[in-house]
Design a protein that fits this description.
Elements: E1 13-15, E2 27-29, E3 35-39, E4 42-47, E5 52-58, E6 64-69, E7 85-90, E8 94-99, E9 104-110, E10 118-121, E11 131-136, E12 140-145, E13 151-156, E14 161-166, E15 174-178, E16 182-185, E17 199-203, H1 226-232, E18 237-238, E19 254-257, E20 264-268, E21 272-277, E22 282-288, E23 296-301, E24 307-312, E25 317-322, E26 337-342, E27 354-359, E28 366-371, E29 376-385, E30 399-400, E31 404-405, E32 408-409, H2 422-425, E33 444-455, E34 464-467, E35 482-486, E36 491-496, E37 501-507, E38 513-520, E39 523-529, E40 540-546, E41 552-554, E42 566-571, E43 577-582, E44 588-591, E45 596-600, E46 610-617, H3 619-637, H4 646-664, E47 670-676, E48 682-688, E49 691-698, E50 707-713, E51 716-721, E52 725-730, E53 735-740, E54 746-751, E55 759-764, E56 767-772, E57 777-783, E58 792-797, E59 802-807, E60 812-816, H5 843-854, H6 869-875, H7 882-893, H8 896-915, H9 936-953, H10 957-969, H11 973-980, H12 990-1002, H13 1007-1022, H14 1026-1035, H15 1039-1048, H16 1052-1062, H17 1065-1080, H18 1087-1097, H19 1100-1109, H20 1113-1126, ...
Antiparallel strand pairs: 1-60, 2-3, 3-4, 4-5, 6-7, 7-8, 8-9, 10-11, 11-12, 12-13, 14-15, 15-16, 16-17, 17-18, 19-20, 20-21, 21-22, 23-24, 24-25, 25-26, 27-28, 28-29, 29-33, 30-33, 31-32, 34-35, 35-36, 36-37, 38-39, 39-40, 40-41, 42-43, 43-44, 44-45, 46-47, 47-48, 48-49, 50-51, 51-52, 52-53, ...
């Protein structure tokens, strides 16, 4: 049995290279933990943890322009498993939805023939997770079913649509970035197209709008810096179209809602990032670059913290975090994003520039940078506890670490995972009036970027490729399937085709590599030719490279300067001899073993057009001679007195003899080669040692043109000419057969390796073919324009049944003999590093792994045998609670639905347990990115802080009016009156505002005035003035009625907002429960959101029921287990015990009272002291009923 394993059967794969400009926006990092990257018409799937390409998807015929991973915001079980699903759009308008694991297309969609502008999976409802929204140029948005390819609806708009962004807090809101401005849509639905054309607003460039610039000389330089930019940007969004001189709309690079707080949007310009408050349509913050700074390309806002990842034109990624309000400030004057960390820039050239950045959506502390040369640079954000030795950024307030880990306060001895996610690295941004947490629990931290992975692509074509000698029984124990790739910059890249990874990169030549020939499994010869001088002469470089050591030397010594270019090099089958063929110079014959020139042919030697070595040689007879020579040398070495010990020492003596015979090179095998001249005549040359003999000559075949290439294997010789003819010679039968392929110039032909394998690979200018030379028939064909869109540059066999093709799109493909570009199964790959991705497992295995990680109540301790080493210590920590475990596992699995549920559940379970006195108080509140799910007290503070900022930034009467309305709803009547009295006398609303100010200041709580105002408010609401009626009801402290009216008229989000800022907990709970019922209704079908609302209200029993009714059994069981541990379900048990007691079932009541903790002790005593008087009655009733 062989004690080693060799992967003889190589998997099909694609080695990718530089990106096309159309691939610039085709990159996405999914919740599944993988990066998808478009490269020409292929799509790479990259594992960012190990920096490996684990899949390449090939089916598109045009360049890929958009890729988008499906969202994971749904409950996963066997019928809805963890799966890798990706949508991609290309420049011809085709959309393909992929099953990434198998590498197959799930469905294909085609609407128009222009490049797809944008793609997004819908995540906002529980009914279907297959809906895909696409922008088809010039002005259509189409909703597709990504599972079946069915078009659900189509909507056109007046302007060309560039991109879109969904509101993460309200899926019915979306914004379209068009060629002229922004279109806001407020009625987006998956069931029907938006009914209206949307609200169209125009964006004016910060530098150009007349509203932003002050009178100044024309030559005055534009001011720079954040402060000056804020002064300049007073009004950005207008309902009127600006004049042509005042606007440069192409400056706006990107539009995106902020996922960290509601109703905020960012607009990206090359030198500014503008933060807009959409309620005021007003800029409330600017990130500006100084004059000497590097412009922006892209910005990605974070959800876990109010932070921005920015990509600059020099490839530098910066992280900017919103500044906390200090305790001395009454309110924030502007949103300021401080630079907290930046990574190293790249060297930008004409061909090397940054394209796009992606951020891990699960943890938001990993970034990937895609560079035009095919590199993927993977950066990780690290935290460093600031000590005295660390210097902070000048003038910046310190950042502190959070006081909790995985949603729970960190125990004194509890282990934590360093740099798990952004929210575990830096604490929450403080707002006005909020006291900072105790400093004893926090550490000041600094952030830094660390390059954790680098994936390099192939350089620019053209390429010269050559596979190493084939696998045999003799080299099986040390064989590696290495492919040498010569590049245009003179380097040679050696790839291991088992893993697809770069084995070595060697800088060998100073100009383009023209050809490579292996001389052993670990060494090769490569040649390059410089550009010709005015006499047509070049500098030839022929280098011998030893792979293990990297040693490289000029094989021809000082030769090579000012001579005709080398056309080809050919190494003999036994790797003894080398023929170097020149364009206008006789060939040279070299001995590879000694590096000596055997023969330089005479000047009258015919011009060589094609050449090939014969596979026949006299090696067997040579071995017999060598054995005889070894025995003779052994006999000479041994004296007569030592004859008796010959047998014992014969092995070592024979080894000595063998080494001596090899070093002396006394015997060399005889080998042959054939070549053709310009007339098509075939010459036969024999080489043995340093003897060269001219053999037979065969006259040209009249049916053949000028011979371009020759291949020889066994008894078959094949010639290809410049006219596309193939001539098959059977040397044994002395027959020849000519086949016209009508494909034009035959550029190269190669026989497949393996004994008896007579397959032949033929390369033409327009493609390639595989022929069976035994049957003399074509096996497969590939032609540019017909089944591929790339041109073949070079060919070779990598195994007996797989070919390797280099193409002009910068890729090298390993294909089956059929030469159909196809993706490969990910589970067939032989990866160097193990990949953590549960989505690659079969559904049952993925769910088993998840259950194993979550809870093991069947064993006394938590054991850990099948997960990442760095997680083991934390998962086995006895202080690591069930809630923390659920949160960590949801991050490990990239499960968006689980993460949202357990984040909210963890917070409120601890919060309600603390209010009942069973747990210590958590020091933090729920992040504001959860909006109305946050605690009312914090939500109110945030809204007050926000309205103060709006007040500072207002620049028109409309802004002032909106601020006053918000202040009235928030109960800030004094400040609202001041704003109402600011209305100028020439304003048409002057009288109304003055009367409203009087009304607000004179309202009393007397019955008649309240009745009158309530009547007026009701009439206003009935007559379509909902907002005004709600304001009046809030003035007389009837906000609960106002919420009911808002809900009646379908303003559910507004009602929830008002309930959080104005109502007491009981009234607010009623309003939010009605909202939860509405979310559960069939026409809305957002039960998962309803569950989060109920969690924030502490309705844990109802949440458990809903989870069970939705068949989310594992989540329900874990949630109820967590509720029991925190004691927050004891009230439900107590109520149930009371119900049972009222029915007379006192034993059952005692059981449930015992589970209700201290609150059930009194009830237990009552149950035990009184006998169950109802049991007999109940028994009698049952007897009667049975009879």
């Amino acid at each position: 049995m062989i004690p080693y394993t060799v992967n003889i059967k190589l998997a099909a794969r694609t080695l990718t290279g530089t990106l096309n400009l159309q691939n610039k926006t085709a990159v996405d990092w999914g919740w599944q933990g993988l990066i998808a990257q478009g490269c020409h018409s292929s799509i790479l799937i990259i594992d960012p943890k190990t920096a490996q390409t684990i899949q390449v998807l090939e089916r598109h015929k045009a360049n890929v322009v958009k890729v988008k991973w499906s969202r994971e915001n749904y409950y996963h079980n066997l019928s809805s498993p963890y799966c890798l699903r990706l949508a991609s759009g290309d420049a011809s308008g085709k959309i393909i939805v992929w099953d990434v694991v198998s590498g197959t297309a799930h469905c294909e969609i085609q609407e128009h023939s222009k490049p797809i502008q944008d793609l997004e999976w819908l995540w906002n409802q529980d009914a279907s997770r297959d809906l895909l929204l696409a922008v088809h140029p010039p002005n259509y948005i189409v909703l597709w079913n990504g599972d079946t390819g069915t078009k659900l609806w189509k909507k056109s708009y007046a302007e060309n649509i560039l991109s879109f962004s969904f509101d993460p807090f309200d899926p019915s809101n979306m914004a379209l970035l068009t060629s002229e401005g922004i279109v806001f849509i407020t009625d987006f639905s998956h069931s029907k197209p938006p009914s209206s054309a949307g609200k169209k607003v125009y964006i004016a460039s910060p530098h150009a709008s007349p509203a932003h610039t002050k009178p100044a000389p024309a030559a005055a330089p534009a001011p720079t810096g954040a402060k000056k930019a804020l002064n300049k940007v007073k009004v950005l969004i207008t309902n009127e179209k600006p004049t042509a001189e005042a606007v440069t709309l192409n400056d706006c690079l990107q539009l995106s809602y902020l996922p960290s707080k509601r109703n905020h949007m960012l607009l990206l310009y090359p030198r500014e990032i503008l933060i807009l408050d959409l309620e005021l349509s007003q800029t409330v913050g600017v990130v500006a670059i100084e004059r000497s700074g590097v412009p922006f390309i892209q910005v990605i806002p974070c959800a876990q913290r109010d932070a921005l990842y920015c990509l600059h034109e020099n490839g530098c990624i910066t992280l900017r975090v919103c500044r906390s309000t200090t305790a001395t400030e009454e309110s924030v004057q502007e949103l300021v994003y401080d630079l907290r960390s930046q990574c190293d820039a790249i060297r930008v050239t004409k061909t090397v520039r940054p394209y796009r950045m992606v951020i891990c959506p699960v943890n938001e502390n990993n970034a990937g940078l895609m560079v035009s040369d095919g590199r993927a640079m993977l950066w990780e954000l690290k935290e460093e506890v600031a000590g005295k030795s660390l210097t902070t950024f000048s003038g910046l307030s310190p950042l502190y670490s959070p006081v909790s880990f995985c949603g729970a306060p960190l125990g004194p001895n509890q282990k934590r995972i360093q740099d798990l996610c952004l929210s575990s690295m830096i604490g929450q941004t403080l707002i006005a009036g909020e006291a900072p947490p105790p400093s004893s629990n926090q550490h000041e931290v600094q952030l830094k970027f660390l390059l954790t992975g680098l994936l390099s692509g192939l350089p620019l074509p053209p390429f010269a490729i050559r596979m190493c000698p084939p696998l045999t029984t003799k080299n099986i124990n040390h064989y590696q399937p290495l492919l040498a790739v010569g590049t245009s910059n003179g380097s040679v890249l050696v790839y291991n085709l088992t893993s697809g990874l770069l084995h070595k990169e060697l800088s060998v030549h100073s100009c383009e590599v023209r050809g490579i020939e292996w001389v052993s499994l670990t060494s090769f010869l490569s040649f390059a030719t410089s550009a010709p001088n005015n006499m047509g002469l070049v500098r030839n470089e022929l280098q011998h490279v030893d792979l293990p050591t990297g040693r490289c030397f000029a094989f021809r010594g000082e030769r090579g300067n000012d001579e005709p270019p080398i056309e080809m090099i050919k190494v003999s089958h036994l790797k003894q001899y080398l023929v170097v063929v020149f364009r206008d110079k006789p060939l040279e014959l070299w001995d590879i073993r000694t590096g000596t020139l055997l023969r330089e042919m005479a000047k009258n030697f015919p011009t060589v057009t094609a050449l090939e070595w014969s596979p026949s040689h006299n090696l067997k007879s040579l071995k017999k001679k060598q054995m005889a020579a070894r025995e003779a040398m052994a006999r000479q070495t041994v004296s007569d007195a030592e004859q008796s010990s010959v047998e014992s020492s014969v092995i070592s003596l024979l080894q000595d003899a063998e080494s001596k015979s090899e070093t002396s090179q006394a015997i060399s095998a005889r080998e042959h080669f054939v070549f053709t001249d310009t007339d098509g005549q075939v010459y036969h040359i024999t080489v043995e040692g340093n003897t060269v003999k001219d053999g037979a000559r065969i006259p040209p075949d009249g049916s053949m043109g000028s011979i371009a290439c020759i291949a020889w294997k066994g008894d078959t010789l094949v010639l290809g000419d410049v006219d596309g003819n193939l001539n098959f010679w059977d040397l044994k039968a002395r027959l020849s057969r000519g086949i016209p392929t009508h494909r034009g110039w035959v550029k190269k032909i190669r026989f497949a390796p393996g004994k008896g394998n007579q397959k032949l690979l033929v390369m033409y200018t327009d493609g390639a073919e595989v022929w069976d030379t035994k049957e003399v028939q074509m096996v497969s064909s590939m032609r540019i324009g017909r089944n591929v869109n790339y041109r073949i540059l070079d060919i070779d066999w990598c195994t007996s049944d797989k070919v390797v093709l280099a193409s002009d799109d910068g890729c090298i493909r390993v294909l089956e003999m059929a030469m159909k570009s196809a993706s490969y199964r990910m589970d067939e790959q032989d990866l160097t590093d193990p990949v953590w991705c549960p989505y690659l497992l079969v559904p049952r295995a993925a769910l088993t792994l998840k259950a194993f990680l979550l809870l093991q109540p069947w064993s006394g301790t938590f054991t850990m045998d099948i997960t990442q080493v760095d997680m083991k210590s934390v998962l086995q920590d006895p202080e690591f609670s069930l809630l923390q475990r659920c949160l960590l596992v949801s991050r490990l699995f990239g499960d968006e639905s689980d993460l949202h549920f357990w984040t909210v559940a963890s917070h409120y379970l601890q919060s309600f347990a603390q209010s009942e006195g069973t747990q210590p108080s958590p020091h933090n509140h729920l992040d504001i990115c959860h909006d109305v799910l946050c605690e009312s007290s914090y939500f109110q503070k945030f809204q007050l802080d926000r309205v103060h900022l709006q007040e500072v930034k207002r620049s028109s009467y409309e802004h002032t009016k909106k601020c006053a309305d918000q202040l009235l709803l928030l109960g800030q009547t004094d400040r609202a009156v001041q704003l109402l009295l600011e209305t100028s006398a020439d304003n048409p609303s002057y009288y109304c505002d003055s009367l409203k100010a009087c009304l607000v200041t004179t309202i009393t709580s007397s019955g008649p005035s309240q009745s009158t105002i309530k009547l007026v408010a009701t009439n206003m609401i009935a007559n379509g003035k909902l907002a005004e009626g709600v304001q009046l009801l809030c003035l007389i402290d009837k906000a609960a009625d106002a919420c009911r009216y808002l809900q009646t008229y379908g303003e559910w989000n507004r009602a929830a907002w008002l309930a959080k800022v104005r109502l007491n907990p009981a009234e607010s709970s009623d309003v939010l429960k009605r909202w939860a019922e509405h979310l559960c209704s069939p026409q809305v079908n957002q039960k998962s959101k309803a569950i989060l609302v109920l969690l924030s209200l502490g309705c844990f029993y109802k949440v458990g029921e809903m989870l069970h009714s939705m068949r989310q059994f594992d989540r329900a069981a874990l949630f109820i287990e967590a509720c029991l541990k925190y004691g927050v379900m004891e009230a439900s048990f107590l109520d149930y015990a009371r119900l049972l007691r009222s029915l007379g079932l006192r034993e059952g009541a005692a059981l449930w009272a015992s589970r209700a903790g201290s609150a059930g002790e009194q009830l237990m005593e009552d149950c035990q002291s009184v006998t169950n008087v109802c049991v007999c009655d109940c028994a009698e009733f049952l007897n009667v009923w049975y009879q």
